[in-house]
Amino acid sequence: MSAEFLDSNVVLYLLSGDDPKRAIAKKLLSNDAVVSVQVLNETASVAKRKYRIDWDQLNGFIEDLLPILRVEPLTLHDHNSAREIAERYGLAFYDALIVASALGAECTTLYTEDMQHGQKIGDLTIVNPFR
Length: 131
Known about the structure:
Elements: E1 3-6, H1 8-12, H2 19-29, E2 34-36, H3 37-49, H4 55-65, E3 70-72, H5 76-89, H6 93-104, E4 107-111, E5 120-121, E6 124-127
Parallel strand pairs: 1-4, 2-3, 4-6
Antiparallel strand pairs: 5-6
Helix pairs in contact: 5-6
């Protein structure tokens, strides 16, 4: 079984009113998904800014996610890899950091809307689950 990494845009659909995308996000979360601390940070930031949820709601949302996700820390190695990936593949730095984290966690699939569907970076395939 290959590990699957979720970008914050996938996790955030759990808070959206888009029922079809929320259903897809729920299904992906049920597959022992992996995220990095960056994904949690981005999720918290967007949830506060875009969805305007209060701190109690945000804390509850994140706490509910933690038991069903494998959360990987960000490391200096991830940072260094992200700089190389950004340069080589022309990605924005924070997108490259997501890729570096997914590769570091030995994931083979990265689910995101923010990058090119089907692109391969090393052993990682980028998939837009909402296509």
